[in-house]
Amino acid sequence: VQLVESGGGLVQPGGSLRLSCVIHGTPYSSSPIIWARQAPGKEIEWVSGIYRDGSTYYNHNMKGRCTISINNTQNTVLMDMNNLKPEDTAVYFCAIPRYTDFDVPRYDCRGQGTQVTVSS
For residue 81, how far is the Cα from the chain centroid? Predict the structure, then answer.
């Protein structure tokens, strides 16, 4: 399985971005896909997660400001982010977490990531 992200970039505070994660290959149908991020000098933190049945989970860091969705036909997971803040600046990546506790930064598979920079 290979995960490939796109959609990052430079955005002003208050702006929006859509991140895309294309899943190449066939992960286990029960595997969730999560979005996580890592800012320079900081630990990895998960942002959102979704299962194939559409159930979604959000961490407190961006809850209310992001929406995760999945297109099972196109094997793509999207994350729409709005009202972005400078502290959201990080490399965002999608991953298949090894454990159901998404706080544990261990992954069976992860993408290379896409840079999101929020700055005026």
Answer: 10
Q: Which of 89, 75, 91, 90 is nearest to 33 (CA)?
A: 75
User: Do residues 6 and 20 make contact, with C-beta atoms less than 8 angstroms apart?
Assistant: yes
Q: What is the pLDDT of residues 13-51, one digit of tens each?
A: 999 999 999 999 877 677 899 999 999 999 999 999 999
18 burial (CB, 10 Å; 0-12 / 13-18 / 19+) is middle
d(CA 58, CA 67): 8
By C-alpha distance, which of 111, 89, 88 is closest to 34?
111
Please give the span between the terminal C-alpha atoms of the chain, in angstroms, as a whole number. 37
Residue whose tokens read 């965002």: 92
Residue with tokens 């998960």: 46
